[in-house]
Design goal:
heterodimer; A: alpha/beta; Rossmann fold; 8-stranded mixed sheet; B: alpha/beta; Pyruvate-ferredoxin Oxidoreductase, domain 3; 7-stranded mixed sheet; 39% helix; 21% strand; globular
């Protein structure tokens, strides 16, 4: 039996009250409820306060470079599809530095789950604007206000992601359910998580989010792309959380012939007989 | 008389220059000749000027040479550009190319004999082999192997025969060279890229991610083509940054992984190189050089990235750099690269260039029983259940046993941040120092894996020519030419460049009156490396950075001018 104790990692070095605590709790709960053991799990993170999350949970951990958690996550998933692979980023990591990887991972539908801690500001570098900062957001690097933000939900849908959800770090129970669904989904699952930054974002606070977020109801159909795109535009007085878009499409890994015989990593490594290839050159 | 014969096929992109050249090379190789062929092409899909040179000898050949005995000119531009190099005959289509005059030009109605616009190259191929009275049956077999059993094959054979018979019947000029098959030795005819691809598959590479870039794209394409049969995966990534990071992820997960690019793609990969360095992830990177900076000359050759790959990335970490000297070497270096990467848990760069990547040479069939796989130190799963696994455990050799995620209960933790033995990020000064030292300690044993540079010619000579990578064949032949002229010359050639074999290099330079580096770059990057690692200054630098490879005669002449 897997318990929360299995996921007790190092002591977090986040600011007290940071939204990351809620995300960590929700992730651990989802992993326990899915009975995933730490050694079956690979978390690949980038750089930023979000990038430290795997160290505060437990599992196999590859803490990669800024903006780059998705490509190594993909490489590892292809090498061993039996691993549960979760990539972890912040908004700068995912939508700024790593924007291209985000687009193409969605398009190719790799079977990984992507948690993006979206606090609309740069925390680790102390308070600069992020790709998702609200328009006009004044920071040290945008004294005249931030330009319009990226809409990660809409971008993911258009790029071809097959599971697109938004969660809120202040609603752990709901977020844990979303993460569970994301892990269970076969294909690229983006979970954009609204996360207050208590140190550097004094606009998008817990209470700011609490006044606005609402859970999508049972009547919402996430399989309709146009409806989902419309829902993705909703931001301001009301912000929807939940699974905004979900469809089934063959994953990248499913379509690779070499993986049908089992994980690459399980193949016995011995000199490969290439004699018949040499014949083609004579 | 020893055979040393040169064909050139010239034409626009799209006219089948490359295919005609390759089939010509194949036909001659099947007759027991040694062949070296190189491609010179522009960065365009149609038009422009491309040429394919095929040098044929009855002994080993590792370089191209200047004079052209037979030029197949598929367009007028080829005549304008190369007629001055032709010492024998130029075959061209006089019904298509008008206003040509001059010695040695011989018209074959290529398009009329072909019967269509697709096969003039095949007619010309037949004509060229007809002119040297080669065995047509060999060409016929080569065409059949190339085009299969169907109609296309028959049409091409017919076209080639038409050209062959036309020239045998109509050519009345002076041309006495004949090439008859000399043996039935079955050598391989392949490019540097093909040798690297075969080496990677043989060495058990299971994952490649890359972004297409001349001159390495054909490695991607080859692995993709063979992926299903050989249970491996080739991912065409969105960019070079993704490519190297995907390969690192796959290697971390436990499979042998590689990527390939050229200089400007490697610029993007540099960030990932350091990631492999600090996370101690085995990684093989093929860097096929072309003239830079930036886009430079995209389809041409240069050796301008040596200093770059040696120092790419910030911070100190160990790496290995191998620069294959020949096509055969490219196969074995690739096998070695995967073993070094696994054994020392670091990035290994295979530094080639366009010349080696896309030149063809005949080589003896590789002795596959010599391929060995050394995965290095692995962590046993049983122990892992009892102990807390430490991915970056401090050891005397600097090498920590590897475990693979999901293959045991051991949790494999690593970080691009500085980390402690367990792989978790730290900021402690003592741990940082210990981890840097641990990584660098690997160099002590890695050093011993590096083969000394190859010497050619007398042990002691007045002049030593020093080269690295793809120039091996050209310098070797230049040494032969100069020695025949009475000069006291030898060669020192480096194919395993880092860790640098300082001892042999210093000793050889010390024994010569003068030493010259021969490099396809503008500043003498090896000369700088030698100075840095041995304190010795070479006497001179023979440099070429026009995008084209050295020929033996060019080198011999340049050395003579320097004073030998």
């Amino acid at each position: 039996m897997v318990t929360m104790a299995d996921y007790a990692g190092l002591e977090p070095a986040w600011c007290p009250g940071c939204g990351n605590f809620g995300i960590l709790k929700a992730l651990n709960r989802a992993l326990v409820e899915l009975e995933i053991e730490p050694h079956q799990l690979l978390m690949v993170s980038g750089i930023g306060q979000a990038g430290k999350l795997p160290h505060y949970s437990r599992g196999n951990i590859f803490n990669s470079l800024h903006g780059r958690p998705v490509p190594p996550a993909i490489g590892a998933k292809i090498a061993n599809p039996e691993l549960v692979v979760i990539a972890v980023s912040g908004d700068g990591d995912a939508y700024g530095e790593g924007g291209n990887h985000f687009l193409h991972a969605a398009r190719r539908n790799h079977d990984i789950t992507y948690l993006v801690h979206n606090n609309q500001v740069y925390g680790l570098t102390k308070g600069q604007t992020s790709p998702t900062s609200d328009p006009g957001f004044v920071t040290k690097t945008t004294p005249y206000g931030a330009p319009p933000p990226i809409n990660p939900i809409a971008v993911a849908i258009v790029a071809g992601a097959t599971f697109v959800a938004r969660g809120f770090a202040g609603d752990v129970e709901h977020l844990a359910k979303l993460i569970k669904k994301g892990i269970q989904h076969q294909g690229f699952a983006l979970i954009d998580i609204l996360q207050p930054c208590v140190s550097f974002n004094h606009k998008n606070t817990y209470s700011w989010y609490r006044e606005r977020v609402y859970q999508l109801g049972e009547d919402y159909d996430p399989s309709d792309q146009l409806v989902a795109l419309e829902k993705a535009q909703e931001w301001g007085d009301r912000i929807p959380i939940g699974v905004i878009y979900r469809v089934q499409r063959p994953t990248f890994e499913e379509q690779i012939p070499a993986l049908k015989k089992g994980p690459l990593v399980s193949q016995k490594l011995e000199p490969v007989k290439v004699g018949r290839l040499l014949d083609e050159f004579s | 008389m020893p055979v040393d014969f040169n064909f050139m096929v010239g034409g626009e992109a799209g006219q089948g220059v490359q295919l005609a050249g390759l089939l010509l090379a194949k036909a001659l190789a099947r007759g027991g000749y040694h062949v070296f062929a190189d491609q010179d092409y522009e960065s365009r899909v149609r038009g422009g000027h491309n040429c394919f040179r095929v040098r044929v000898k009855d002994s080993r050949v590792g370089a191209i040479a200047e004079p052209v005995d037979i030029l197949i000119a598929l367009d007028e531009e080829s005549i304008n550009l190369h007629q001055k190099e032709v010492t024998g005959v130029t075959i061209f289509d006089g019904e298509k190319i008008k206003d040509t005059s001059g010695n040695g030009l011989f018209s074959v109605p290529l398009e009329r004999l072909a019967g269509d616009k697709l096969m003039p190259n095949t007619v010309a191929l037949g004509a060229a082999l007809g002119l040297v009275a080669y065995d047509f049956e060999i060409l016929e077999k080569v065409l059949r192997d190339q085009f299969g059993a169907g109609d296309v094959s028959q049409k091409n054979i017919k076209a080639a025969r038409a050209g062959y018979e036309y020239i045998r019947r109509e050519f009345k000029g002076e041309f006495s060279h004949q090439l008859s098959p000399i043996s039935q030795v079955n050598r391989l005819l392949l490019t540097g890229n093909e040798a690297i691809s075969l080496g990677a598959i043989a060495a058990g590479c299971k994952f490649m991610a890359a972004y297409p870039m001349t001159p390495v794209s054909s490695i991607m394409e080859y692995l993709a083509e063979k992926a299903e049969d050989f249970d491996l995966v080739m991912v065409h990534a969105e960019d070079e940054i993704a490519a190297i990071n995907m390969a690192i992820g796959a290697a971390y997960a436990g499979v042998r992984a590689m990527t390939a690019t050229s200089g400007s793609g490697f610029c993007l990969m540099v960030e990932g190189l350091g990631l492999a360095g600090i996370t101690e992830t085995p990684l093989v990177v093929v860097e096929g050089q072309r003239p830079g900076p930036a886009v430079g000359l995209p389809t041409r050759t240069e050796q301008g990235d040596l200093q770059f790959v040696l120092s790419a990335h910030h911070g100190d970490f160990p790496r290995a750099v191998l620069a294959p000297s020949t096509i055969e070497d490219a196969f074995w270096m690739t096998v070695k690269a995967f073993n070094l990467a696994d054994k020392y848990q670091l990035p290994v760069i295979i530094l080639t260039d366009q010349h080696l990547a896309s030149s063809y040479a005949t080589v003896d069939r590789f002795d596959l029983s010599r391929v060995n796989i050394d995965r290095g130190l692995l962590f046993s799963g049983k122990k892992a259940e009892q102990l807390e696994y430490k991915r970056h455990q401090i050891t005397e050799s600097g090498i920590s046993p590897r475990a693979f995620p999901g293959q045991s209960k051991a949790l494999v933790v690593t970080d691009a941040d500085e980390h402690d033995e367990t792989g978790h990020l730290i900021e402690d000064a003592g741990i940082r120092t210990a981890q840097v030292q641990k990584r660098l300690r690997k160099l002590f044993s890695l050093n011993k894996e590096i083969e000394p540079p190859k010497r050619y010619g007398p042990k002691t000579a007045k002049t030593t020519l020093i080269g690295w990578g793809s120039t091996y064949g050209a310098i070797q032949e230049a040494v032969d030419m100069m020695r025949q002229g009475g000069a006291s010359v030898n060669m020192l050639h480096l194919n395993e460049l880092w860790p640098f074999p300082a001892e042999t290099v210093a000793e050889t330079i010390g024994r010569s009156h003068q030493s010259y580096v021969i490099e396809n770059n503008a500043t003498g990057q090896l000369a700088r490396l030698i100075k840095m690692e041995t304190g010795r200054e070479v006497s001179g630098r023979i440099l070429k950075y026009d995008g084209h490879p050295f020929t033996p005669a060019y080198i011999a002449e340049a050395v003579r001018k320097e004073g030998c």
